């Protein structure tokens, strides 16, 4: 199966001489000692930023599918979509900030700066891609991240979203439709009253924020805020325009369920 792999992952595999991915595990010593050179630093950063842009597209697609799923009454699956949007946005923000995630059995964090080598993250805080990304982001950004300044029911926002996804995806024996999960009560009422776009605008304009830390709103409000923060990270670090072609399918999906003047569409706007 052929597909486009992350550019920086391909770069490091090639740089250490791995031409057959079946043998990639045997290149771990070379990976762990490989340093960013002064001559390649700008090139790798550019490739990483492009990876971050692609991750933003994946996040926007997942966010749009989550918003549309709620509008169609598919509340259970939307929880999964919203969580995945956050996962992609966190990875995108890490890329924008100059940090690449490299996979070789374990997960490696590589700061793209001259002289830096990939550092293995292998203890229980980084035991899989999802927990690993959340904790790496926390390690690097911490309370400088707006969504890490408070908790939901005593849990960090990203962990709360991940655990809700685990409940729906793995632990719950069936989906609740035609019922709905308690966390979507406000969305359900707003849809019944034809005020869904207005509710999304309230989440978008919530600068404090309040809704992102309220369990009755956070399923939608927190991923939406994370999208805004990630877009800002990309802009500050060199992305000036988003591809209309890559954004089009997600935008068309939203156009079927929210009003054209809803502020969520600002996430699709070019920065140039």
Characterization of this structure:
This protein has 272 residues and is mainly alpha-helical. The chain is built from 10 helices and 5 strands. The chain has helices at 7-15, 28-33, 38-71, 75-96, 129-141, 157-171, 185-192, 196-204, 218-236, 244-255, and strands at residues 99-104, 106-111, 119-121, 151-152, 155-156. The strands form 2 sheets. The chain has a 3-stranded antiparallel β-sheet with strand order 1-2-3, sandwiched between helices. It is globular and about 60 Å long. The mean pLDDT is 93.
What's a concise summary of this model?
With 272 residues, this protein is mainly α.
What's the layout of helices and strands?
Layout: H1 7-15, H2 28-33, H3 38-71, H4 75-96, E1 99-104, E2 106-111, E3 119-121, H5 129-141, E4 151-152, E5 155-156, H6 157-171, H7 185-192, H8 196-204, H9 218-236, H10 244-255
Helix pairs in contact: 3-4, 3-9, 3-10, 4-5, 4-6, 4-9, 7-8
Estimate the global geometry from the Cα principal axes: globular
Can you summarize the main beta sheet?
3 strands, antiparallel
Helix content: 40-55%
Uncertain runs = none
Chain oligomer state: single chain
Order of helices and strands: HHHHEEEHEEHHHHH
Gyration radius over CA: 19 Å
The structural class is mainly alpha
- How many helices does DSSP assign? 10
Write out the strand line-up for the largest beta sheet, numbering strands in chain order.
1-2-3
């Amino acid at each position: 199966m052929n597909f486009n792999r992350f550019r920086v992952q391909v770069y490091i595999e090639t740089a250490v001489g791995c031409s057959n991915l079946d043998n990639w595990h045997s290149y771990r010593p070379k990976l762990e000692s490989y340093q960013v050179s002064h001559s390649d630093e700008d090139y790798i950063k550019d490739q990483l930023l492009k990876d971050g842009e692609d991750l933003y597209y994946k996040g926007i697609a997942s966010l749009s599918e989550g918003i549309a799923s709620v509008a169609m009454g598919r509340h259970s699956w939307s929880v999964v979509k919203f969580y995945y949007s956050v996962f992609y946005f966190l990875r995108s923000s890490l890329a924008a900030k100059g940090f690449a995630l490299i996979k070789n059995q374990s997960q490696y964090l590589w700061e793209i700066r001259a002289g830096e080598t990939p550092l293995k993250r292998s203890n229980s805080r980084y035991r899989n891609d999802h927990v690993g990304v959340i904790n790496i982001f926390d390690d690097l950004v911490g309370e400088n991240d707006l969504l890490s300044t408070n908790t939901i029911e005593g849990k960090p926002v990203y962990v709360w979203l991940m655990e809700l996804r685990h409940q729906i995806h793995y632990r719950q024996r069936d989906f609740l439709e035609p019922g709905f999960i308690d966390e979507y009560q406000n969305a359900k009422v707003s849809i019944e009253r034809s005020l869904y776009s207005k509710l999304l605008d309230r989440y978008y304009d919530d600068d404090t924020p309040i809704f992102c830390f309220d369990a009755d709103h956070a399923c939608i409000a927190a991923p939406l805020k994370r999208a805004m923060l990630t877009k800002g990270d990309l802009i500050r670090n060199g992305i000036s325009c988003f591809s209309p072609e890559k954004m089009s399918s997600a935008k068309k999906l939203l156009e079927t369920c929210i009003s054209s003047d809803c502020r969520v569409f600002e996430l699709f706007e070019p920065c140039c």
